[in-house]
Design a protein that fits this description.
heterodimer; A: 342 residues; alpha+beta; 60s Ribosomal Protein L30, Chain: A; Phosphoribosyl-aminoimidazole Synthetase, Chain A, domain 2; 2 domains; 7-stranded mixed beta sheet; 5-stranded mixed beta sheet; 8 helices; 28% helix; 25% strand; B: 359 residues; alpha/beta; Rossmann fold; 5-stranded parallel beta sheet; 11 strands; 37% helix
Chain lengths: 342, 359
């Protein structure tokens, strides 16, 4: 690993999903695990087994607090992995789960989490088929950490989606609703802030919404769930190194008032705040309205909208047309905006 | 959202942009001396809306940025003491010291806690009687009254394990010093929050001495565009005066209660500013009668030898003489996740704001 002054120790910023995380992944994990599938670095690995394509992914959840308005750590553990598979264009099939539990955790709380997971898995039609449990000494982890992995069935025609190979200038950028809800729900739920506001996490499994969108359009060219690092990070990652640019219109973004208010108080930019139920799609212009219409039929897509466009201008860069008529660059989140958000 | 949307109204912003274009004939350089303004100007992409002859430059308005490395080194030295808990606003923990940062000390096991109010620090002191709790008091007239209030409260509560390490500074000496040193300016966008406390009197010297306008501005796009318009108008009319654009918050005499608290607890001292050097009466020292809460007086530590980073031009940027893009390190060796200078650390720092929004 190239040693810079920050790299002789792991700091919280390495887990932020921003630039430090990217450096860590590239300079450590990819370097040593080195293989062609991993280096694609998409939401799910695309693997071939007996001539069928499988999407395969894993995610760990360490959110603090474990219960928050709109859900708990179990809900995001199930939704997060389902969403990672679905945005790769795959149909999620099976999940695994691994629990690391702190000694002394109330059984009732653990049960509530497990019930939430069971309900979500059932609703999404993706059973949890294997698991593991470890208990560690008090203080060695914080209540409970959960890992989920999942596999999904990927049709050949959808393989390009996770790579974004077919993106063209003129394509529309779509998101299925408001931004920043999950991150700000967690912030508001943390007692240290003493803020009285009710913000619900947007945590939701998106496999049905995505399957419906894929059924109305053969021209969905890219999908990613905008989790840690928010919409801004997805957009800037997408555009980095590409031969097209992206323009996002701030006045097309939905930010709920309570989320905006808390962001204002804390100095956060909603563009970089985590979501747990949002997918960003790049869709051919002629199909964009169909996709929006299909999303709006889902309870998780009522506020879906076209927020921007792929352009020939400024290749490799994403610009935000601000709501007051100004312009600014959309950069990747640097450092940690919020720790332990998922 | 009420009280925000009105000040982010596209049509009103456009109206002021047109007005500025119409009335401004001469080149004009305006400096914002508040980090909140820098952030807002970049976040809303306002330079894009101004004619070429109107130039905005960022001044020394980010408290973290103007704080010297010695301060960070000393805070790090405190954090290495077994019985000390450091409490700080979040900005400071990433600022590089001579050989470490609070963030790295935290990863190494030092007890460093990010808080949102000095009252949280006092609570930590009450709960940890066997520890000494040091609050890193940083900021201008805006945050200094809160530190003063905390110290008065600590006195009333007879806390014996609570200390403030003051890097508090006051703004006017820096504003005058920049012009004295020959930085070419035509006006100041005056700091909204500082002025809420101080009122407008503290800037009266600037028009008198330097024939230059000051407009105290709010933080929303409409506020800033209107303030720029007011400054352009002053310049075109050959006027120089202190005006308040942010009148919904800033009163001419400021907040008397907060001013009294500052006077009660702090006294002026000469202080070192990154980029500006030592400025007379620009810092706030805790008065003798409250010395038992003064970390500098009460906690002795050995501080490592000061090392300044090579190639960093934070100082010139803070003086408005260079822009972040002029720095060789900008965006390469120096990024928000791996900063060399403090201007890249704080969300209010010019380099950080430029990095995020204007590369």
């Amino acid at each position: 690993m190239t040693m810079t002054k920050n790299n002789d120790k792991i700091i919280l910023g390495h887990g932020s999903g921003g630039k430090l995380s990217h450096d860590l992944i590239n300079n450590l994990f990819i370097k040593h695990f080195s293989n062609s599938i991993l280096s694609q670095q998409s939401d799910s690995a695309i693997v071939d087994i007996n001539n069928s394509r499988i999407a395969f992914t894993t995610d760990s959840f360490v959110v603090d607090p474990i219960f928050f308005p709109g859900g708990n750590i179990g809900n995001i553990a199930v939704a997060g992995t389902i969403n990672d598979l679905a945005v790769s264009g795959a149909i999620p099939k099976y999940l695994s789960c691994g629990f690391i539990i702190e000694e002394g955790m109330p059984f009732k709380q653990l049960e509530e989490i497990v019930i939430s997971m069971a309900q979500d898995a059932k609703k999404a039609g993706v059973p949890i088929v294997t698991g593991d449990t470890k208990v560690v000494d008090k203080g060695k982890c914080d209540k409970v950490f959960i890992n989920t992995s999942g596999i999904g069935d990927l049709e050949e025609r959808n393989v390009h989606i996770s790579l974004g190979d077919n993106i063209l200038p003129g394509d529309k950028i779509i998101i299925n609703g408001s931004i920043g809800d999950h991150g700000m729900a967690i912030m508001a739920a943390r007692n240290e802030l003493n803020i009285n506001t009710h913000i619900e996490s947007d945590c939701a499994p998106l496999n049905d919404l995505i399957a419906d969108a894929l059924s109305v359009s053969d021209n969905i060219r890219f999908m990613r769930d905008a989790t840690r690092g928010g919409l801004g990070t997805v957009i800037s990652e997408l555009v980095a190194g590409s031969d097209y640019g992206i323009e996002v219109n701030q006045d097309k973004l939905t930010v709920h008032d309570n989320v905006r208010g808390l962001c204002e108080i804390l100095g956060f930019d909603p563009l970089y705040v985590a979501n747990e139920g949002k997918v960003v799609m790049v869709v051919a212009s002629e199909d964009a309205d169909n996709v929006i219409e299909s999303m709006k039929k889902s309870p998780y897509g009522e506020e879906a909208s076209i927020i921007g466009e792929v352009s020939y201008d400024h290749p490799g860069m994403a610009w935000l047309n601000t709501s007051v008529g100004g312009k600014r660059v959309i950069e990747m989140l640097s450092g940690q905006q919020l720790p332990r958000i998922c | 959202m009420k009280y925000i949307d009105e000040y982010r109204n596209k049509d009103i912003v456009k109206y002021f942009a047109n007005q500025i274009k119409t009335i401004s004939n001469q080149p004009i350089r305006l400096m914002e001396v508040c980090g909140g303004h820098t952030m807002s100007i970049q976040k809303f992409g306002l330079p894009h809306l101004l004619p070429e002859n109107v130039e905005l430059i960022s001044g020394p308005g980010c408290p973290v940025c103007v704080t010297g490395r010695e301060y960070v080194d000393r805070a790090i030295a405190y954090s290495r003491l077994e019985d000390v808990i450091i409490t700080t606003y979040g900005d400071l923990i990433k600022v590089p010291g001579s050989s470490s940062s609070l963030e790295r000390e935290k990863a190494d096991g030092a007890d460093i806690r990010i808080i949102y109010s000095i009252l949280d620090a006092m609570l930590i002191a009450k709960k940890n009687k066997s520890k000494r709790v040091v609050f890193l008091g940083i900021g201008f007239e805006t945050t200094a009254p809160a530190s003063a209030a905390g110290i008065i409260k600590a006195q009333t509560a007879s806390l014996t394990n609570f200390f403030v390490f003051s890097a508090h500074k006051v703004m006017p000496p820096a504003m005058e010093s920049l012009i004295d040193e020959g930085v070419q300016l035509d006006g100041y966008i005056g700091p909204g929050h500082v002025s809420t406390i101080t009122g407008k009197g503290i800037y009266e010297n600037i028009p008198k001495k330097f024939n230059m306008g000051v407009v105290i501005s709010g933080f929303e796009p409409v506020d800033l565009m209107q303030s720029i318009h007011m400054l352009v108008k002053q310049k075109e009319n050959n006027e120089a005066k202190v005006e308040i654009q942010y009148s919904r918050v800033v009163k001419p005499d400021g907040n008397k209660v907060a001013q009294d608290m500052l006077d009660e607890v702090f006294e002026p001292r000469d202080d070192w500013w990154r980029g500006l050097g030592v400025l007379k009466d620009s810092g706030l020292k805790i008065k003798r009668k409250y010395h038992k809460f003064d970390a500098e007086e009460m906690i002795k530590v050995e501080v490592e030898e000061l090392k300044e980073p090579k190639g960093c031009i934070c100082g010139l940027i803070l003086r408005g003489e260079k822009k972040p893009k002029d720095c060789k390190l900008f965006g390469k060796a120096c990024t928000p996740s791996d900063p060399v200078g403090a201007c890249m650390v704080s969300s209010e720092g010019s380099c950080h704001a430029y990095y995020l929004y204007n590369r």
